[in-house]
Amino acid sequence: MAQRYQTRFDSFEGLETVVQAIEGFSQERFLASLHLNNRRTAMDLAALDTKLLGAIANLQEQHAQLLDFSLTFNSQFVTRNNHYFNSAHQLLRKIHTGVTQMKHIYKRFTPNSNAAVPASMQATYTPPSIYERSSLGIAPYTRPMFGLDVYTPEVQRLCMDMARFFDVLRESLLVCLEVIRQEQYIRRDPNQCKELYHDFKDENYLRIRKHINSIRLNTSEFSPDHNPAIDLRQCCATEEEFAQKAFHDQDFDDVCSLATKELVEEAQRGIFSIEELQLFAEDRDKIMKVRYIISHFDEYLEPNPRRKNVPADYVACLMGWCDIPIKKNLAFVKYFAETYTKANGQYKPPSNPAVNVKKRSSWTGIPEYEPLISQWESVEIS
Known about the structure:
There is one protein chain. Helix content is 58%, strand content 0%. By secondary structure, it is an all-alpha fold. The longest helix is centred in the middle third of the chain and has 35 residues, at 153-187. The N and C termini lie far apart (78 Å).
């Protein structure tokens, strides 16, 4: 059956609501809530106070554990608790005694908190938060006629201990809110997310480095069909995009498998990038030669004091000499620009449209380019 109120609050917004409710607690609200149920005996109040004192002692210990957890939580790309996919849930588990006791208190001091709604409303009824509807927290209440000092010792002790309990719980919930704010801030920074992923990969490398050459990637463990993290990485255009989406949102073991896969692939590639291997059909000797040519490209240019750009026809000629497929022409022009710039070339690399205009079906037999091609073919990389 559906409930009149809901007591869950394991979200950022829910945490804010509960903190607001706790901060609204006062002696007057306590007494107003107490009067809503006059059937409580002194023994009932004493029993509740005993439970509350035990909860305070446990919560103080759990608060220290929460503080320790909060120091490292956002420095980890994923944690072993990430299968919950909910940071608020993970943090609240650290102070579970306080959370459980608070829910119990609000149920005890809010009339009809467990009453079922009519069956006809079950499909559409959304239970409101008990923390918003309870006079113990945020809701309007009737001020009591007398102060706490006229009530029995049991009532006075319960009120004071409840205030102590809420003070400790409030401090813990504020830690939770701050950790989640930090997490949201990190997720907005793609570079920081990528750095955290690289740190995770480095740690994973230390665990597998002795076995990296014996790991086979043709198993289901490294298949995107069986690993959500690997599937997500393949769907993302950049490592930064993946890191933002995966930060605190993928299973720890799945990300370990992804990191292992990438580390093995990097070991197999050696000094070559994925882009180079794809562009030159994994011809490593050719890659080394083209790298050298591009890095020394200024040496192949005729002296010209007015020159500002690398001649587009020279780049088009190199692309033809490398036998780059048409569908990879843009990738080659980009690779040329990046490699040339990284080598501190003194001119501006040509744009892709400029290179496209200069393309030919064949460069052989053209006197202007034969010496250039001859120099490229004679390049030797030791």
